[in-house]
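Suppose you are handed a protein chain with no further information: no name, no annotation, nothing but its sequence. What can you learn? This example shows the usual starting point.
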Amino acid sequence: MKNVLAFFTRDIKQTLFFRSFLVEELVRPIAWFMLYTITITHNFRTINFNGQAMDYFSFLIPGIMVLLAFQRFSSTVVKASNERRHGMFKMIMVSNVRAHEYILGRILFASTVVTLQGVLIYIVNNLFNFYRIDFRGFYTDYLVLVLMVFLAVVFWVTVGTIMGLWLDSAEQSSAVNVIFYLPVMFSSSIFYDLDRAPYMLRIIGMLNPLSYQTQVVRKLFLFGDLDMLAMSIVIFSSIGSLALAILKVGNSELVP
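A reasonable first move is to predict its three-dimensional structure. Written in C-alpha coordinates, the prediction is:
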Protein backbone atom coordinates (compact mmCIF):
# COMPACT_ATOMS: atom_id res chain seq x y z
CA MET A 1 0.00 0.00 0.00
CA LYS A 2 2.92 2.33 0.71
CA ASN A 3 4.21 2.01 -2.85
CA VAL A 4 0.72 2.58 -4.28
CA LEU A 5 0.41 5.85 -2.35
CA ALA A 6 3.92 6.81 -3.46
CA PHE A 7 2.94 6.44 -7.12
CA PHE A 8 -0.26 8.38 -6.51
CA THR A 9 1.61 11.22 -4.76
CA ARG A 10 4.20 11.34 -7.53
CA ASP A 11 1.56 11.70 -10.24
CA ILE A 12 -0.26 14.39 -8.26
CA LYS A 13 2.95 16.41 -7.80
CA GLN A 14 3.83 15.98 -11.48
CA THR A 15 0.40 17.24 -12.54
CA LEU A 16 0.59 20.28 -10.25
CA PHE A 17 4.17 21.09 -11.28
CA PHE A 18 3.61 21.02 -15.04
CA ARG A 19 0.87 23.48 -15.93
CA SER A 20 0.21 21.79 -19.26
CA PHE A 21 -0.71 18.61 -17.38
CA LEU A 22 -2.99 20.56 -15.06
CA VAL A 23 -4.77 22.19 -18.00
CA GLU A 24 -5.14 18.83 -19.72
CA GLU A 25 -6.52 17.10 -16.64
CA LEU A 26 -8.91 19.77 -15.34
CA VAL A 27 -9.56 22.58 -17.83
CA ARG A 28 -9.99 20.60 -21.04
CA PRO A 29 -12.88 18.40 -19.77
CA ILE A 30 -14.79 21.51 -18.67
CA ALA A 31 -14.20 23.13 -22.06
CA TRP A 32 -15.48 20.00 -23.78
CA PHE A 33 -18.53 19.91 -21.55
CA MET A 34 -19.37 23.53 -22.36
CA LEU A 35 -18.88 22.81 -26.07
CA TYR A 36 -21.29 19.89 -25.90
CA THR A 37 -23.94 21.81 -23.97
CA ILE A 38 -23.77 24.96 -26.11
CA THR A 39 -23.46 23.40 -29.57
CA ILE A 40 -24.48 19.75 -29.80
CA THR A 41 -27.38 19.80 -27.37
CA HIS A 42 -28.76 23.01 -28.88
CA ASN A 43 -28.78 21.43 -32.33
CA PHE A 44 -30.24 18.11 -31.17
CA ARG A 45 -33.03 19.01 -28.79
CA THR A 46 -34.64 15.61 -28.26
CA ILE A 47 -33.85 11.95 -28.81
CA ASN A 48 -35.80 8.72 -28.43
CA PHE A 49 -34.06 6.21 -26.19
CA ASN A 50 -35.42 3.02 -24.66
CA GLY A 51 -38.87 3.88 -25.98
CA GLN A 52 -38.97 7.34 -24.39
CA ALA A 53 -38.47 10.84 -25.77
CA MET A 54 -36.02 12.95 -23.75
CA ASP A 55 -33.88 16.04 -24.13
CA TYR A 56 -30.50 15.29 -25.68
CA PHE A 57 -28.52 16.63 -22.72
CA SER A 58 -30.12 14.10 -20.37
CA PHE A 59 -29.13 11.40 -22.85
CA LEU A 60 -25.59 12.77 -23.22
CA ILE A 61 -24.57 13.38 -19.60
CA PRO A 62 -24.08 9.65 -18.73
CA GLY A 63 -21.95 9.37 -21.87
CA ILE A 64 -19.80 12.26 -20.67
CA MET A 65 -19.27 10.41 -17.37
CA VAL A 66 -17.89 7.41 -19.26
CA LEU A 67 -15.96 9.67 -21.65
CA LEU A 68 -14.02 11.04 -18.66
CA ALA A 69 -12.96 7.47 -17.87
CA PHE A 70 -12.05 6.78 -21.50
CA GLN A 71 -9.81 9.87 -21.62
CA ARG A 72 -7.52 8.13 -19.13
CA PHE A 73 -6.51 5.76 -21.92
CA SER A 74 -4.53 8.28 -23.98
CA SER A 75 -2.76 9.87 -21.02
CA THR A 76 -1.85 6.43 -19.61
CA VAL A 77 -0.42 5.29 -22.96
CA VAL A 78 1.84 8.34 -23.08
CA LYS A 79 2.93 8.07 -19.43
CA ALA A 80 3.71 4.35 -19.56
CA SER A 81 5.57 4.67 -22.85
CA ASN A 82 7.61 7.67 -21.66
CA GLU A 83 8.53 5.99 -18.38
CA ARG A 84 9.87 2.95 -20.16
CA ARG A 85 11.78 4.91 -22.81
CA HIS A 86 13.35 7.30 -20.30
CA GLY A 87 14.41 4.61 -17.83
CA MET A 88 11.93 5.47 -15.08
CA PHE A 89 10.11 2.16 -15.47
CA LYS A 90 13.40 0.31 -14.96
CA MET A 91 14.16 2.28 -11.80
CA ILE A 92 10.69 1.52 -10.46
CA MET A 93 10.80 -2.20 -11.13
CA VAL A 94 14.30 -2.78 -9.72
CA SER A 95 13.34 -1.07 -6.47
CA ASN A 96 11.22 -4.01 -5.27
CA VAL A 97 7.96 -2.53 -6.53
CA ARG A 98 5.45 -5.21 -7.48
CA ALA A 99 3.50 -5.16 -10.70
CA HIS A 100 0.10 -4.84 -9.01
CA GLU A 101 1.33 -1.84 -6.97
CA TYR A 102 2.38 -0.07 -10.17
CA ILE A 103 -1.06 -0.67 -11.69
CA LEU A 104 -3.02 0.24 -8.55
CA GLY A 105 -1.10 3.51 -8.25
CA ARG A 106 -2.13 4.39 -11.80
CA ILE A 107 -5.76 3.47 -11.11
CA LEU A 108 -5.88 5.49 -7.88
CA PHE A 109 -4.56 8.61 -9.61
CA ALA A 110 -6.89 8.20 -12.59
CA SER A 111 -9.93 7.67 -10.35
CA THR A 112 -9.08 10.82 -8.38
CA VAL A 113 -8.76 12.87 -11.57
CA VAL A 114 -12.05 11.58 -12.98
CA THR A 115 -13.79 12.36 -9.68
CA LEU A 116 -12.43 15.92 -9.68
CA GLN A 117 -13.42 16.38 -13.31
CA GLY A 118 -16.96 15.23 -12.56
CA VAL A 119 -17.27 17.54 -9.57
CA LEU A 120 -15.97 20.53 -11.56
CA ILE A 121 -18.36 19.82 -14.43
CA TYR A 122 -21.25 19.64 -11.95
CA ILE A 123 -20.20 22.98 -10.40
CA VAL A 124 -19.81 24.68 -13.80
CA ASN A 125 -23.18 23.36 -14.96
CA ASN A 126 -24.95 24.73 -11.87
CA LEU A 127 -22.97 27.98 -11.91
CA PHE A 128 -23.98 28.83 -15.47
CA ASN A 129 -27.36 27.12 -15.16
CA PHE A 130 -26.93 25.07 -18.36
CA TYR A 131 -29.15 22.12 -17.57
CA ARG A 132 -30.68 20.41 -14.60
CA ILE A 133 -28.90 17.14 -13.87
CA ASP A 134 -31.56 14.81 -12.53
CA PHE A 135 -30.57 11.33 -11.40
CA ARG A 136 -33.68 9.15 -11.26
CA GLY A 137 -32.41 6.09 -9.45
CA PHE A 138 -32.20 5.22 -5.77
CA TYR A 139 -29.08 5.62 -3.64
CA THR A 140 -28.14 2.00 -4.28
CA ASP A 141 -28.36 2.67 -8.03
CA TYR A 142 -26.07 5.66 -7.55
CA LEU A 143 -23.48 3.47 -5.84
CA VAL A 144 -23.67 0.94 -8.67
CA LEU A 145 -23.31 3.79 -11.19
CA VAL A 146 -20.16 5.05 -9.43
CA LEU A 147 -18.81 1.48 -9.39
CA MET A 148 -19.43 1.12 -13.13
CA VAL A 149 -17.60 4.37 -13.90
CA PHE A 150 -14.74 3.22 -11.66
CA LEU A 151 -14.54 -0.10 -13.53
CA ALA A 152 -14.44 1.85 -16.79
CA VAL A 153 -11.45 3.76 -15.38
CA VAL A 154 -9.81 0.47 -14.41
CA PHE A 155 -10.34 -0.92 -17.90
CA TRP A 156 -8.94 2.03 -19.83
CA VAL A 157 -6.02 2.61 -17.46
CA THR A 158 -4.96 -1.02 -17.67
CA VAL A 159 -5.41 -1.19 -21.46
CA GLY A 160 -3.45 2.07 -21.76
CA THR A 161 -0.67 0.65 -19.59
CA ILE A 162 -0.44 -2.51 -21.68
CA MET A 163 -0.22 -0.55 -24.92
CA GLY A 164 2.15 2.06 -23.49
CA LEU A 165 4.64 -0.56 -22.31
CA TRP A 166 4.40 -2.31 -25.67
CA LEU A 167 5.35 0.81 -27.66
CA ASP A 168 9.00 1.77 -28.14
CA SER A 169 8.84 5.39 -29.34
CA ALA A 170 6.97 8.64 -28.89
CA GLU A 171 5.87 8.47 -32.51
CA GLN A 172 4.24 5.10 -31.93
CA SER A 173 2.35 6.28 -28.85
CA SER A 174 1.11 9.36 -30.71
CA ALA A 175 0.03 7.23 -33.67
CA VAL A 176 -1.88 4.83 -31.41
CA ASN A 177 -3.77 7.71 -29.80
CA VAL A 178 -4.64 9.20 -33.19
CA ILE A 179 -5.66 5.90 -34.78
CA PHE A 180 -7.36 4.36 -31.75
CA TYR A 181 -8.97 7.20 -29.76
CA LEU A 182 -11.47 8.79 -32.16
CA PRO A 183 -12.72 5.56 -33.83
CA VAL A 184 -13.38 3.95 -30.45
CA MET A 185 -15.16 7.06 -29.13
CA PHE A 186 -17.39 7.63 -32.17
CA SER A 187 -18.20 3.95 -32.75
CA SER A 188 -19.55 3.71 -29.20
CA SER A 189 -22.96 4.79 -27.90
CA ILE A 190 -21.72 7.93 -26.11
CA PHE A 191 -23.29 10.40 -28.55
CA TYR A 192 -26.16 8.41 -30.04
CA ASP A 193 -28.40 5.40 -29.52
CA LEU A 194 -26.56 2.43 -31.00
CA ASP A 195 -29.84 0.65 -31.75
CA ARG A 196 -30.68 3.37 -34.29
CA ALA A 197 -27.25 3.38 -35.95
CA PRO A 198 -26.56 1.89 -39.41
CA TYR A 199 -26.08 -1.88 -39.42
CA MET A 200 -22.29 -1.95 -39.86
CA LEU A 201 -21.73 0.75 -37.25
CA ARG A 202 -24.02 -1.15 -34.87
CA ILE A 203 -21.93 -4.30 -35.33
CA ILE A 204 -18.71 -2.38 -34.65
CA GLY A 205 -20.29 -0.71 -31.64
CA MET A 206 -21.29 -4.09 -30.21
CA LEU A 207 -17.59 -5.06 -30.20
CA ASN A 208 -16.64 -1.83 -28.46
CA PRO A 209 -16.24 -2.04 -24.64
CA LEU A 210 -17.03 1.68 -24.41
CA SER A 211 -20.56 0.99 -25.66
CA TYR A 212 -21.33 -1.39 -22.79
CA GLN A 213 -19.79 0.96 -20.22
CA THR A 214 -21.98 3.77 -21.55
CA GLN A 215 -25.08 1.56 -21.75
CA VAL A 216 -25.02 0.43 -18.14
CA VAL A 217 -24.32 3.94 -16.81
CA ARG A 218 -26.98 5.54 -19.03
CA LYS A 219 -29.78 3.16 -18.03
CA LEU A 220 -28.92 3.54 -14.36
CA PHE A 221 -28.80 7.32 -14.62
CA LEU A 222 -31.94 7.82 -16.70
CA PHE A 223 -34.23 5.05 -15.49
CA GLY A 224 -32.65 3.41 -12.46
CA ASP A 225 -32.57 0.18 -14.51
CA LEU A 226 -29.71 -2.28 -14.40
CA ASP A 227 -28.63 -3.80 -17.72
CA MET A 228 -27.30 -7.13 -16.48
CA LEU A 229 -25.62 -8.09 -19.76
CA ALA A 230 -23.79 -4.77 -20.07
CA MET A 231 -22.84 -4.82 -16.40
CA SER A 232 -21.45 -8.35 -16.68
CA ILE A 233 -19.36 -7.38 -19.69
CA VAL A 234 -18.04 -4.29 -17.86
CA ILE A 235 -17.11 -6.31 -14.77
CA PHE A 236 -15.40 -9.21 -16.53
CA SER A 237 -13.61 -7.03 -19.10
CA SER A 238 -12.21 -4.85 -16.29
CA ILE A 239 -11.05 -7.87 -14.28
CA GLY A 240 -9.50 -9.39 -17.39
CA SER A 241 -7.67 -6.22 -18.42
CA LEU A 242 -6.42 -5.75 -14.85
CA ALA A 243 -4.97 -9.28 -14.79
CA LEU A 244 -3.35 -8.81 -18.22
CA ALA A 245 -1.87 -5.46 -17.19
CA ILE A 246 -0.30 -6.96 -14.08
CA LEU A 247 1.19 -9.75 -16.20
CA LYS A 248 2.45 -7.22 -18.76
CA VAL A 249 4.13 -5.03 -16.14
CA GLY A 250 5.75 -8.05 -14.51
CA ASN A 251 7.07 -9.43 -17.78
CA SER A 252 7.92 -6.29 -19.77
CA GLU A 253 11.45 -5.53 -20.90
CA LEU A 254 12.75 -2.78 -18.64
CA VAL A 255 14.04 -0.69 -21.57
CA PRO A 256 13.00 -0.53 -25.26
